[in-house]
UniProtKB/TrEMBL annotation, chain A:
CDD domains: LuxR_C_like, REC_NarL-like
SMART domains, A to Z: HTH_LUXR, REC
Highest taxon listed in the record's lineage: Bacteria
UniProt-recorded Gene Ontology molecular function terms: DNA binding
GO process annotations (BP): phosphorelay signal transduction system; regulation of DNA-templated transcription
Protein name in the entry: DNA-binding response regulator
Cleaved signal peptide residues: none
Domain Response regulatory, residue spans: 2-122
4-aspartylphosphate PTM positions: D52
PROSITE patterns, sorted: HTH_LUXR_2, RESPONSE_REGULATORY
Lineage per the UniProt record: Bacteria, Bacillati, Actinomycetota, Actinomycetes, Streptosporangiales
Annotated ranges, domain HTH luxR-type: 144-214
Keywords: DNA-binding, Phosphoprotein, Transcription, Transcription regulation
Cross-referenced Pfam families: GerE, Response_reg
Automatic annotation (TrEMBL), chain B:
EC number: 2.7.13.3
Transmembrane segments: 49-69, 136-162, 168-188
UniProt keyword terms in alphabetical order: ATP-binding, Kinase, Membrane, Nucleotide-binding, Phosphoprotein, Transferase, Transmembrane, Transmembrane helix, Two-component regulatory system
Keyword Transmembrane: yes
One GO CC term on file: membrane
GO molecular function: ATP binding; phosphorelay sensor kinase activity; protein dimerization activity
The reaction(s) this protein catalyses: ATP + protein L-histidine = ADP + protein N-phospho-L-histidine
Positions in coiled-coil regions: none
Presence of the UniProt keyword Lipid biosynthesis in the record: no
Lineage: Bacteria, Bacillati, Actinomycetota, Actinomycetes, Streptosporangiales
Name the UniProt record assigns to this protein: histidine kinase
Gene3D superfamilies: 1.20.5.1930, Histidine kinase-like ATPase, C-terminal domain
Domain Signal transduction histidine kinase subgroup 3 dimerisation and phosphoacceptor span(s) in chain numbering: 230-295
Length: 215, 423
C-alpha cells in the first residue's frame, strides 16, 4: 500500500515508517505540520494515511482538522488518526460523513503491530477501525446506556467488537465462538436495535456506529 | 375613600418613622445639651469645673457613634431595602501561643479576655470606619434630624395651641396638625440618601477589605498549588517512573535469556509490552487531571461537549460558539463542570443534565456564565473542605462566584460566573 505518515515527533514518525516498511508497505511521503499534511494528502492521494491529532503550528488539533478537510475534498479518503488520548467527540466528527475509510486509535495500539496493520488495511479497504477505548466510551455514555439495556451481556460484547470494525470471523476468534454463533448474535442485536443488515460488513459497521453516534 | 385610607396609613407610618429618625439622630445633640445644662445649672457657668461635663459629652459622642450608625443602617435596610455594607475591620482570631499567652494580632496578653479587650480597643481606634461613624453622628442631626423633626413639632404645636382658649392659638394648633399630617409621609425619607452618602465604606476601607480578601485567596492558591504538585510528583514517582524501571529490567533480562531460553524471553517481552501500555494509560489519566488535552486542542466549549459525551448522564450542552477565554479560566470552569457532573451522577443519582455556556455582563464588565442543571435528588451545598467549597475557591481566584440552588428532592442548579475581559 502507498501510505502517508503525518507526525511531528521525529522518534514516533521514524518508528512508524520503519514498522510499516517492515510489513512491506511503502511510505510515499511524511508531513510534520497541519498545512503540510493537508497538502500531502491532496497531492499524493495515498491508499491510506496515518495522521497524528496534535501538530504544529498551533499544537492543537491541526492533524484532525487537516484530515477532516482532506476528506471533505476527497470523500472517503482513507485516514487512520492516532492520538495520545481518545475522545468520543472526535470519533463522532470523523464518522459524521458516513463514508467509512476511517480509523481512530490510541498511539499505543501500535504495540500490537499485527493488529495495527490489520486495522490499517481495513481502513484502506473502506472499512472502519476504532480503538476499543473509543467503543467502550461510546457504549457506556449516558444515552447509549438506556438504548442498549435490552442486549444480553454476550450481545454487548459482540456489538463492541463489531463496532471496532471487526468481521464476524474476527469477532468469533476474539470471543472463542464459531462464526455462525456470532451471526446469530448479530441478527438478534440488529433486531433489538432496529438496524437493517444488508450483509456488507463495512456498511454494517457504519450502521452500528451511526446508531451509537445518534444515541 | 380607599385612597384616603391608604394615604392616612402612610402618614401614620411616616410619622412613626420620622420620630425614630429624630430620636436616633438627636442622641448626640441630646448628650451635648445635657452637658451644657449641667454646666449652666450645677456650676453656674464657672469655666473650670465645667470641663467635666464637656469631657463626658465627648466620651458619650465617641461611644454613641457606632450604635447610631448601626441603627441607621438597620432602619434603612428595613424600610427601603438598601443594604449599606458596614465595612468594619474584622477581628483576627485570638490564639493561645505555646508560651500560654494569648496573641490577638497586636499584642500578647495573659488571659484571652484581656487579649480580646485589647484587640477591640485597638481595632476600634485604628479602624477608619470609626472616624466615618463619628462624622456621621455629627452630620446626622442637621442632614436628617431637622427635617424629621417637622411632624413631631407640628404635633407639639397642635397640643399647645388647642390647650389655649385664644383663637389665634387655636389657629396655630390647626396649622400644626396640617403640617404634621402633610409632612409625615416625607419627613423620614432623607435618611436613605444621607445614609448612602455618608455611611458607605470609603475607597480606603474598600481597598483594605480587598487586600484582606486577596491575601486569603493567595494563601489558598499557594496551598492548593503545592498540594497539586506533590500529588503529581507522587503519581509519577510511584507510577510511570517505577514502570519504566521495571520495563528496563525486563528488557535486560530478555537480552540475557534470548539465546538460552527464547520461550521465557518471549513471555517477558509480552509482559513488558503490557507494562508499557499500562504506564501509558496511567500517564494519560495523570495528564487529563493536570490539563485535559481536549481543552488544549479545542477550548472550553468542545471540551465540555467531550465531557458531556463521556458522562454516564444524558447531558446536553448549549453554548455560545465564539468564546475566547483565558486558559486559566477555561481550566477552572472545565474542572468545575466535571465536578458538578460527577456529583450529579454519584450523589444526586441524576439521569439528565443540561449545561449552558454563555456570555454575560457582571458588575465590572464582560463575563462568562456556566449553568449546570440536573434532575437529581438535590440537597447539595457548600461544606467546608468539600468539593463545592474547593470549586468556589478556585473560582474566587478569578473573582468568580458559585451560586447553588439545590432544594432537598431536587432539582439542582449551579451557576458559575467569572468576569473575563477577553470576551
Amino acid at each position: 500500500m502507498r501510505i502517508v505518515v503525518a507526525e511531528d515527533l521525529y522518534l514516533l514518525r521514524d518508528g512508524m515508517v520503519r514498522l510499516l516498511e517492515a510489513y512491506g508497505h511503502q511510505v510515499v511521503a511524511t508531513a510534520t505540520t497541519g498545512p503540510e499534511t493537508l497538502d500531502v494528502l491532496l497531492t499524493q492521494r495515498p491508499d491510506v494515511a496515518v495522521v497524528d491529532v496534535r501538530m504544529p503550528p498551533t499544537q492543537s488539533d491541526e492533524g484532525l482538522r487537516a484530515a477532516l478537510d482532506a476528506r471533505r475534498r476527497l470523500p472517503g479518503l482513507p485516514i487512520l488518526i492516532l492520538s495520545q488520548h481518545v475522545e468520543q467527540l472526535y470519533a463522532r466528527e470523523l464518522l459524521a460523513d458516513g463514508t467509512g475509510g476511517i480509523g481512530y486509535f490510541l498511539k499505543e495500539s501500535v504495540f500490537d503491530a499485527d493488529q495495527f496493520v490489520d486495522a490499517l488495511e481495513r481502513v484502506a479497504g473502506g472499512g472502519t477501525a476504532m480503538d476499543p477505548a473509543v467503543i467502550a466510551k461510546l457504549l457506556s455514555s449516558g444515552s447509549s446506556n438506556r438504548r442498549l439495556e435490552r442486549l444480553t451481556e454476550r450481545e454487548h460484547d459482540v456489538l463492541g467488537l463489531m463496532a471496532e470494525g471487526l468481521s464476524n470471523q474476527a469477532v468469533g476468534q476474539r470471543l472463542f465462538l464459531s462464526e455462525s454463533a456470532i451471526s446469530k448474535h448479530t441478527t438478534s442485536i440488529f433486531g433489538k436495535l432496529g438496524i437493517t443488515d444488508d450483509g456488507n460488513n463495512n456498511r454494517r459497521v457504519l450502521a452500528v456506529l451511526t446508531y451509537l453516534n445518534n444515541a | 375613600m380607599r385612597q384616603l385610607v391608604s394615604w392616612l396609613a402612610s402618614a401614620a407610618v411616616g410619622f412613626v418613622r420620622a420620630c425614630v429618625v429624630l430620636v436616633v439622630s438627636m442622641l448626640v445633640p441630646a448628650v451635648w445639651a445635657a452637658a451644657a445644662g449641667l454646666w449652666m445649672w450645677w456650676w453656674g457657668g464657672d469655666p473650670w469645673p465645667g470641663l467635666a461635663p464637656l469631657l463626658w459629652a465627648c466620651v458619650g459622642t465617641l461611644a454613641l457613634a457606632r450604635p447610631i450608625c448601626r441603627m441607621v443602617r438597620a432602619v434603612v435596610a428595613r424600610w427601603t431595602g438598601t443594604v449599606i455594607p458596614p465595612g468594619y475591620r474584622q477581628a483576627a482570631p485570638v490564639v493561645r501561643m505555646s508560651t500560654g499567652y494569648w496573641w490577638n494580632g497586636f499584642s500578647y496578653e495573659r488571659t484571652s479576655r484581656d487579649a480580646r479587650r485589647d484587640q477591640r480597643m485597638r481595632l476600634w481606634w485604628s479602624d477608619p470606619a470609626t472616624w466615618r461613624d463619628l462624622r456621621f453622628a455629627v452630620i446626622a442631626p442637621f442632614a436628617m434630624g431637622v427635617i424629621a423633626a417637622v411632624p413631631p413639632a407640628g404635633v407639639v404645636a397642635a397640643v399647645v395651641g388647642f390647650g389655649h382658649p385664644a383663637p389665634s392659638m387655636r389657629l396655630i394648633g390647626a396649622l400644626g396638625v396640617a403640617v404634621a399630617v402633610g409632612a409625615a409621609p416625607y419627613a423620614w425619607r432623607p435618611v436613605r440618601p444621607v445614609a448612602v452618602r455618608f455611611l458607605r465604606p470609603s475607597p480606603a476601607m474598600a481597598l483594605a477589605d480587598r487586600v484582606d480578601e486577596l491575601t486569603a485567596q493567595r494563601a489558598d492558591t499557594t496551598v492548593a498549588q503545592a498540594a497539586e504538585i506533590r500529588r503529581i510528583e507522587r503519581d509519577l514517582h510511584d507510577g510511570a517512573q517505577a514502570r519504566m524501571v521495571a520495563l528496563g529490567m525486563s528488557l535486560a533480562t530478555v537480552e540475557k535469556l534470548m539465546e538460552t531460553d527464547p520461550d521465557r524471553a518471549k513471555a517477558l517481552l509480552r509482559d513488558a509490552r503490557a507494562g508499557a501500555t499500562a504506564s501509558l494509560a496511567e500517564l494519560r489519566d495523570l495528564v487529563r487531571g493536570i490539563s485535559p488535552p481536549v481543552l488544549t486542542e479545542r477550548g472550553l466549549v468542545d471540551a465540555v461537549r467531550a465531557l458531556a459525551l463521556d458522562s454516564p448522564l444524558e447531558a446536553a450542552v448549549s453554548a455560545d460558539l465564539r468564546l475566547r477565554l483565558d486558559p486559566p479560566i477555561e481550566s477552572a470552569l472545565y474542572f468545575g463542570v466535571a465536578e458538578l457532573l460527577t456529583n450529579a451522577a454519584k450523589h444526586a443519582r441524576a439521569t439528565r443534565a443540561g449545561i449552558s455556556i454563555a456570555r454575560t455582563s457582571t458588575g465590572t464588565g464582560a463575563g462568562i456564565v456556566v449553568d449546570v442543571a440536573d434532575d437529581g435528588t438535590g440537597g447539595a451545598g457548600v461544606r467546608a473542605g468539600g468539593g463545592l467549597d474547593g470549586l468556589r475557591r478556585r473560582l474566587a481566584v478569578f473573582d468568580g462566584t458559585l451560586e447553588i440552588t439545590s432544594p432537598t428532592g431536587g432539582p439542582t442548579r449551579v451557576r458559575m460566573v467569572v468576569p473575563c475581559e477577553s470576551l
